[in-house]
Amino acid sequence: MRASLLWVWLCWLAVFYGAWLLLVVGLDLWSLVREHWPMALSMAIGSYAAGSTPMGGGTVGFPVLVLLFDMPASLGRDFSFAVQSIGMVSASIFILCRRQALAWSMLRGALIGSLATIPLGILFFAPIVPELWVKLVFAVLWGSFGIFHLYRLNEITALERAGDGRCPRDFRVGLLSGAVAGFSAVSVTGVGIDMVIYTALVVLSRVDLKVAIPTSVVIMACGSLIGVAVKSLSGDWQPGVFGNWLAAAPVVALGAPLGVFVVGLIGRRSTLLAVAVLCVGQFAWICVAEREALGGAGLLVALMAVGACLLAFERLRRVGLRMAEGGREHSEGLFSRAGRSAIGRNTAKIRPDAL
Q1: What are the CA-CA distances from residue 122 to residues 31, 107, 219, 348 (Å)?
Q2: Has residue 9 been placed in a domain?
């Protein structure tokens, strides 16, 4: 990393920790921080996963609050917005300072799409979704994501394409994916757009994880900031968010960038494998914990939803393989035509009397 860029991230940390200390000391909130120390401990793991995988910090914060502490799903969503606005933003600044490669075309499209739909989803869609279905949406999305990674891990980690920063198709895919995920997933659970964009990049565009994961981190940071802005302007934060955020924020500000840095040294395979197992585990946990409310029919619907997500992943994978094969054939065709043209030009230069 260039020292001239590192100072930007260090300044961000200095500003954040100064503001946090001023808030805690000035308002005498140490007791509130101590009261919520379990969340800080949980987010030490969650923030590392947020920086090193396509899962936002809310992917850990949501089930911890909702499943372990038996809090409302709406609190898990609001906490996801709040904690990711520090952790994912810190990781994004770190990524940009390191000048890591990003899929800019899809990132721009996703940002525009989510900017339009996340506020609409928070204000009009999330309030009408029952708490139980919020939990199931989260469980199904990440459970199917984990299963897909478990049996396609070798293929995903072998991808090497850097991506095209000016690809119109990637922009359109990002625009549509960001709009749909922002309205249906982010507004309800606080996470999801990172997973959707990562999946589009890896499965459809066949992009290297070194590009896809940082891109997913940046788009989730933007989505979280949008969520925080909407919740703050509407004054609709759930009680309990502030205390949990106050305890976890100083941890995630360093934890997420640490994940970005460490995974570059140890590789992503083992981290992705561990997180995939956790994603499947939380799906099973929610199904068991809510078995009475779900009943047999609800459980069947959840399993069918996971199956539908896996079919969608596989469909996207086949489309991505066909597009990649078509691109190779196009390149080979251009090369062959260029070669034939060069041979023709060289042949034309040979004088008949020289034969």
Answers
A1: 31, 21, 17, 69
A2: yes
Find the domain containing 61 and state its range. Answer: 3-334
User: Cβ distance 276 to 153 under 8 Å?
Assistant: yes
In sequence order, what are the residues at sequence separation of 6 or more whose Cβ sits closer than 8 angstroms to the Cβ of residue 322? Answer: none
User: Are the C-beta atoms of 56 and 50 separated by less than 8 Å?
Assistant: yes
d(CA 48, CA 41): 12
168 vs 25, 103, 164, 193, 204, CA distance in Å? 50, 12, 9, 20, 14
Regions of the chain where pLDDT drops below 70: 1-4, 56-61, 163, 165, 264, 266-267, 327-355
Going from the C-alpha of 22 to that of each of 14, 17, 19, 25, 162, the distances in angstroms are: 12, 8, 5, 5, 43
Dihedral pair phi/psi, residue 161, rounded to 5°? -70, 135
**The two three-digit tokens of residue 43, written as one number:** 């987010």
Residues in the chain: 355
Predicted confidence at residue 295, as pLDDT, reads: 87
- The answer to whether residue 315 is domain-embedded is yes
Q: What is the pLDDT of residue 334?
A: 46
**Tokens encoding 155:** 């293929």
Q: What is the DSSP string of 252-287?
A: HHHHHHHHHHHHHHH-SHHHHHHHHHHHHHHHHHHH
What is the per-residue pLDDT for 192?
86
How many separate domains does the chain show? 1
Q: Does some domain include residue 340?
A: no
Tokens 């502030």 sit at which residue?
Answer: 242
Residue 289's pLDDT is what? Answer: 83
User: Is 220 a member of any domain?
Assistant: yes
